[in-house]
Amino acid sequence: MQVVSALRHALEQHQLTIHYQPQFSARDGRIIGAEALLRWHHPLLGQVSPEEFIPAAEDSGLIVTIGEWVLRRAVRQMKAWLDEGMAPFVLAVNLSTVQFRHPNLPAMVATILAEEQLPPQYLELELTESGAMHDPPAAIAVMDQLHEHGVRMAIDDFGIAYSSLSYLKKFKVYKLKIDQSFVRDISADPEDRAIVTAIIAMARGLGLRTIAEGVETQAQLEFLREHGCDEIQGYYYSKPLTAEQFGRFVHEVE
Ligand code: G
Ligand code: G
Ligand code: MN
Ligand code: NA
């Protein structure tokens, strides 16, 4: 409860910010996306990880307000970057399972895009595999609506939950994000290599793109590239950056 009131205060006192982690084409190393990641700087506690406060925000329902704030801020930033003439890429925003189940979600997303004047093709929404598989028929309906609004979906942390592959086929999903836990030991662990190779092959067969998260080394990058992974995200290229740092980063690599 204390976390929740502190969070409510944080939202009012502008302690929340968004960092952006660039995503790269595995083929040519160009920036093709960015993931928005929420940050809380508490005046006494310093940086508080979303892993610590998102569960409390979900239990209290405050995540709906926070999630809407994140989406609006990130969409507004993306619009500003495009208006400045930055080369286009797709902005990915995380959705909590609680947000995803909220009946107003598709309308909320459409309203924010319209008000901020960002064309929907620049937005991707990430939902975890467990969130998608919690109630697959309901998830299909929500994804269909988002798809109708022109927004694409990615399945986050893919591979660690139990995925019903027959449902995966029915989801209007554009991309699978291969969980970091499989990428970490990809150079040494034959089982992780087998899992990653299988996810990429399955995604290919289903017409889905793949992105590997948590890529930190050249060896990981090369394995993923050789096995047909489409996109790369991780410290090897860049950690999550402030909006200002992100702007400079794009400028330097262009
Ligand atoms: O960037 P970092 O490693 O601190 O993120 C930790 C976790 O918090 C990740 O699982 C990430 O998906 C989640 N997260 C970051 N930003 C958001 C957000 O805006 N909304 C939700 N629901 N989760 C987020
Ligand atoms: O939403 P998701 O659970 O995918 O959040 C991604 C998380 O992974 C964020 O907390 C981000 O800060 C973190 N992250 C991004 N790149 C790397 C990386 O190369 N290594 C590690 N260990 N974490 C990373
Ligand atoms: Mn994510
Ligand atoms: Na993830």
From TrEMBL:
The chain positions of domain EAL read: 1-254
Q: Which organism is it from?
A: Rugamonas brunnea
TM stretches of this protein:
none
Q: Could you name the domain of life of the organism this protein comes from?
A: Bacteria
User: What is the protein name given in its UniProt record?
Assistant: EAL domain-containing protein
The shown residues of the full protein are: 338 to 591 of 595
